[in-house]
Amino acid sequence: MLLELSPDQEVLREATARYLADRVPAEAVRRLRHDPAGFEADYWQGGAELGWTSLLVGEEQGGGSISGSALVDLTLVAHEFGLRAAPGPLAATNVVAAALGAAGPAHSEVLADILSGATVAAWCLGGPPPLDRLDSVGLALRVDGDDLVLDGVSRPVESAAQAGHLLVAARGEEGLTQLLVPAATPGVTVEPLRTVDLTRRFFAVRMDGVRVPRAAVVGEVGAAADQIERQLQRAIVILNAETVGAMQAAFDMTVRWAFERYSFGRPLASYQALKHRFADMKTWLEGAHAVNDSAAAAVDAGSPDAGELVSAAKSFIGDYGTELLQDCVQLHGGIGVTYEHDLHLYLRRVTVNRALCGTPAEHRQRVAAVVEHLKERA
Amino acid sequence: MTSDISTGTGSAAGAANAEATESVADFRRRARTWIRANLRPLEHNEGAGVMRADTTDEEELAAVARERQIQRMLFDAGLAGICFPREYGGQGLSPEHQRAFNEEITGFEYPGRLQAPTFSPCAAVLLEFGTPEQKERHLPAIIKGEEIWMQFLSEPSSGSDVAGALTTAVREGDDWILNGSKIWTTGAWWSDWALCLARTNWDVPKHRGLTVFIMPLRQPGIDVQRIEMLNGNKEFCQEFITDVRVPDTDRIGDVDNGWTVGTRWMFHERMLHNSPFVTVPAGWSYGGVDATVLVDVARDAGRLDEPRVRDLIGEGRVLDLVRESLQGRIGRGVVSRRMPDQSAAIGRLFAGIASTRVTSMAYDIAGSAGAAWSAEDGAVAECGNDFLLRQTTCIGGGTTEMARNVISERVLGMPREPALDRDRAFRDVPRGGSGRS
């Protein structure tokens, strides 16, 4: 997270922090383990009132950023989410809201419900393995007269069973298209997947000959590739910010533990072998903060290196986020892998985020493709 | 007297009151125009590798002369000493101006040998602790490229334990007489002045008996010996100091208070990659092997299309980008006081570890041609020697082990390592051999 916030950004961060501390302390997160949605509807609406859903949407559509750098603002919320392993489909809802907002007034009613927190939104992009690779989509699109017909399976789709509408990416002869599909459309089935996170819910969304009118298209038929790339960049930055928050919480918790826990008559924090590991973890943590802040700023600025920075951040934070968490577990010893301890709440979140929107290795391939031509660019 | 790394900013603010400060955008335009008109664009991967032994002494001296000339040209163009106060020949501008300059000079020749240790830590320490006379005498000379400085800090018997210096200064009237030996000075054989940490009191604990002096490097009492590194590079030197007379007016800071200076001295050394006093081309990698070098090695080895190789290239570039972002975060954090000064060790640790990793990757991508190569192998050549010298980036400028101590103890507040010399007169502290006869 940024070291220095503007007063308005600090208001947003502080309000989110207080709200989450009140509504979703660790016991509440544990209680949501068996809740079908993983979050309570009024909790999400309360968050929407704080601005959780509207930052990436233009003012004329009922949204608005705090600082003019909308994604940077949203990373402040996501960081607080990470600090508490908080429930709620923050990344998907914001990405869908941004896409609908950018498409003009065509989908303004749905957008209004998302902004108010009355509903959440889900984003169907990848498919079952191996269609979960970056640049793959799970659904196929066919034009049939005035209708568009969707077939296939998209997964994992967060909060698909809770969402009123699904933003669907589909590939057809014309290229990539995005459509807004009401979840209740005939032919849409939603099956739950199991996951490691306590409060996030993922689904497989199956579409069998799902028919929607052309008005469902978000943007243009066959012209969604850039739009999807931009959504992916935003989703990644939000997930990263959440992971960095979870890394920060786990690291702080483990530093406290090192001071409090005594072995052989001295605190763990006095052993050089452990101190050096804390130094390494602190370095990874600060690197994770730094690179995601750079990525967020680059995406907001529409900078040519945004894609490279986003992939670098996803790769680094994916690898070192889980590495840091597992090291925190190791430094805690047995208590670190029990259900009663809070550490696993963060381990779960970081583990899930690592695999979503492209693995570290996939993003390294993307970065390699950029750096290969770096000198030509310069 | 003690200030912080934002000294340049403070001076810029002062200058702004006197006359309108040049905007960063205007400065950038002026720098760009001048650089393109006056400096030579770098060849492909010029300067890549780890301390390569690829120049003769004549070429090295010619390169030093050219860098002095460039520094003078920068001074004449009003582009030298960007964050140094105007009264000492600098521009009195801000770290943002320096950053813009770093971006503009990327890809062009620049006086790299003059940056560290001349501008930082040496000139930074002079600016912070020097008397007005000392600053007037040396800072303009440094900014014009007339004085190249070395740091007489490490000794054969103490690397990480810098405060355990044995080089001794004894008072004689208005002068001090220095004896001892210093080591790991890069290019002392073509340098002019030295900033020297010496022991002035053996009867107090080690940190309380040190004093800092400055002295001309080329004088009869200083014997500069070049050290041959394992690849044949001879840029590192060791100095033998015998009865060198230093006037008391060339003392920096108070007698026996050298550690106050030394602490800031090492801070400036760790901040090197993000110092407002240093010109570092944007994207410059610590140690000279970065992901763009990996691409060249892979291409010249015919392996650029292998997914495994591309994974390494991607990882190398990720480390480069994280290092750049991290240095920026630490630089801003220290200036704004959101992070303690000692956080500089975080950037130092990351840079060292990342560099060793990327150097290893280059050797792996090179394949057997890394072990045995011909002159026609392109970027693959010398990857083996780079690998042999891989650890230099985790040793020079303070070891990564010391950085880990600093981070855990000074940033995270964990208990200090027990030190058997802490409350003991330095004369009574046990000492081992030097490791170097």
From TrEMBL, chain A:
GO terms for molecular function: acyl-CoA dehydrogenase activity; flavin adenine dinucleotide binding. Gene3D superfamilies: Acyl-CoA dehydrogenase/oxidase, N-terminal domain (1.10.540.10), Butyryl-CoA Dehydrogenase, subunit A, domain 2 (2.40.110.10), Butyryl-CoA Dehydrogenase, subunit A, domain 3 (1.20.140.10). Keywords: FAD, Flavoprotein, Oxidoreductase. Residues 6-104 form the Acyl-CoA dehydrogenase/oxidase N-terminal domain. It holds the Pfam family Acyl-CoA_dh_1. It comes from the Bacteria. The keyword Glycoprotein does not apply. Residues 237-370 form the Acyl-CoA dehydrogenase/oxidase C-terminal domain. InterPro entries: Acyl-CoA_Oxase/DH_mid-dom_sf, AcylCo_DH-like_C, AcylCo_DH/oxidase_C, AcylCoA_DH/ox_N, AcylCoA_DH/ox_N_sf, AcylCoA_DH/oxidase_NM_dom_sf. Its cofactor is FAD. Belongs to the acyl-CoA dehydrogenase family. PANTHER family: ACYL-COA DEHYDROGENASE, ACYL-COA DEHYDROGENASE FADE28. This is Acyl-CoA dehydrogenase.
